[in-house]
Amino acid sequence: MWLSRRILLLTLFIPSLVIAKNKVVYFEPTLVELNGVIKTLQFPGPPNYESIKNGDRDESGPYLILDNPIDIELTPKIQIGNDEPRQNVKLIQLIVHTNSDWEKIKQGNYVRILGVLFNAQTGHHHARVLLEVNKIKVISKEYLVKIKFDITAEDREFLKGQAGDVIQ
What confidence tens digit (pLDDT) does each residue in 72-95 have? Predict the structure, then answer.
């Protein structure tokens, strides 16, 4: 009887291990589709990237907080820029080009975005990974009234390297 209970527990536990694995997506030029909540974050910019209060430019921008963390791999046989694999990514900085897409980038909107991913390259990039938006669809405008800043330890560690405090 104790053996059958152990087997039952193992069959219940093993699927949860499989489910816990992050989704794997690929860097540019591969198109990816991601779901999450829009969050506006503020960072100090030029000239010193230290403090908006002390005269640095405000670099507020849109970020996507994913439902679940992802792992990002290089597209097979393609190396673009400084892309290197990233694990456990939940916070992504958005690069938005069109006015129609900007109209959908509102704090708290739950969205599905199609675009290409690339690694942070400059001091203006405030997340480990950025997403150049090709298409955005608002799923819900009432998804979260109060957004919890729920990101991974790896994303938090990257943000610690940013000058100044993140203003949420």
Answer: 999 887 777 767 899 999 999 999
Query: Which bin fits 164, alpha (ψ -120 to 50), beta or left (φ > 0)?
Result: left
Q: Which domains does the chain have, with CATH numbers?
A: 22-160 (2.40.50.140)
DSSP conformation class of 74: P
Could you give the CA distance from residue 131 to residue 55 in angstroms, rounded to a whole number?
A: 29
Question: Which phi and psi angles does 95 have, rounded to 5°?
Answer: -110, 110
- List all residues 6 or more positions away from 57 whose beta carbon is below 8 Å from its beta carbon: 44, 45, 46, 47
Q: Give the span between the Cα atoms of 85 and 71, in whole angstroms.
A: 8
The sign of the torsion formed by the CA atoms of 34, 36, 39, 42 equals negative
N- to C-terminal Cα separation, the chain: 54
CA dihedral sign, ordered 121, 86, 35, 153: negative
The DSSP bridge pattern shows strands 58-73 and 23-26 to be parallel
Task: Write out pLDDT tens, residues 26-67.
Answer: 999 999 999 999 999 988 888 888 888 899 899 889 999 999
